[in-house]
Amino acid sequence: MTSFKAIRIDSADAPDGARYVEMSEDALMPGDVDLDVLYSAINYKDGLAVTGKGRVVRRFPMIPGVDLVGRVTRAAHPDVAPGDVVVATGCGIGEAHYGGFAQKARLPGDWLVKLPERLTPARAMTVGTAGLTAMFCVFALERHGLTPAAGTAVVSGASGGVGSFAVALLASAGWRVAAITGHAAEGDYLRSIGAAESLARDDFSQPGKALQTQRFAAGVDTVGGVTLANILSQTAFDGAVAATGNVGGMDLPASVAPFILRGVSLLGVESVRPRIALRRAAWARIATDLDAAMMDAMCEIIPFDQALERARSIVTGKIRGRVVIEMP
């Protein structure tokens, strides 16, 4: 049986948290598709997993890595065949099912999307869960019937992973985008990916009136808490906000006024469940709407032997942009 290299977390109480190991293919978890992993990526959730600072891992041992792209080596699923390059994100990968920080993976075929021809494997991992979630948010606004003709779309946490992709995708779809950020120095970066203006995070971080001046036709919120409450209060008649984050807190100190007096809608967005048809549509749209040069500018590719160190550093805020792991 072929062995492979992996990063493995053996228990919640392990003093070293996670370590490099050699594993046998017969140790892989059940699935009807085997892959040679080509690339993975470092997400904040992966950093929490390898450091034990968050209750991310739901079973032990665990190979972290919530994103991966790989080449199929064995398939007992009708939608994929050996040689196909496929992408997988979410679905409990790296949390309840062995993930992408390994040379090999075995996954259910229902979790896999064939990589669109316009996307390289490395760019797919630059996008990863963050970009896919942003695309789901854009889809939610579009299902609600909103179009760029309605006005400005606001994005909170705009310099973060989901926020950056939301700015780029909304701008590509024709929206005028206002980007909320706590870092004034990020203004040039945000304009380079499509933002028309930058707004100060401090202007949204304190409690405000239940109804404020109508500024936005739509929004993507990655923060939650008071920031989301203020965005809702500034959303225009029949507007909507897609919410997908909680870094600003799990509470929502808002009033019902925007909902019952302006017809504003709050659209919840999650990106963990498979929903394969939605994932296929999202990856196809990402492949056409995101600029290749922009993806490359956001990405740093590192070798696998640096992955554990870099995953640990993400929880201390020492990673900007997307760090993609190239497998040996």
> What's the CATH H-level homologous superfamily of the largest domain?
Medium-chain alcohol dehydrogenases, catalytic domain
CATH topology of the largest domain: Quinone Oxidoreductase, Chain A, domain 1
| Total count of strands | 15
Distance between the termini: 19 Å
Q: How can the largest sheet be summarized? A: 7 strands, mixed
Coarse morphology: globular
What's the tally of helices? Answer: 9
The SS-based structural class is alpha/beta
* CATH architecture label of the largest domain: Alpha-Beta Complex
Low-confidence stretches: none
What is the count of structural domains?
2
Average pLDDT level: 95
Strand content: 25-35%
What is the CATH class of the largest domain?
A: Alpha Beta
Q: How much helix, percentage-wise, in residues?
A: 25-40%
Query: Measured on Cα atoms, how large is the radius of gyration?
Result: 20 Å
> What is the helix/strand order?
EEEHEEEEHEHEHEEHEHEHHEHE
What does the model show?
This protein is of the alpha/beta class. It has two domains: 142 residues, Quinone Oxidoreductase, Chain A, domain 1, CATH 3.90.180; 140 residues, 3-Layer(aba) Sandwich (Rossmann fold). Helices cover 28% and strands 26% of the residues. The chain contains nine helices and 15 strands. Strands 3, 4, 5, 6, 7, 14 and 15 form a seven-stranded mixed beta sheet that branches. A six-stranded parallel beta sheet has the order 10-9-8-11-12-13, with helices on both faces. The protein has a two-stranded antiparallel sheet with strand order 1-2. Helix 6 links the parallel strand 12 and strand 13. Helix 1 crosses helix 9, helix 2 packs across helix 3 and helix 2 packs across helix 7. The longest helix has 23 residues. 49% of the residues are buried. The model has no long low-confidence stretch (mean pLDDT 95).
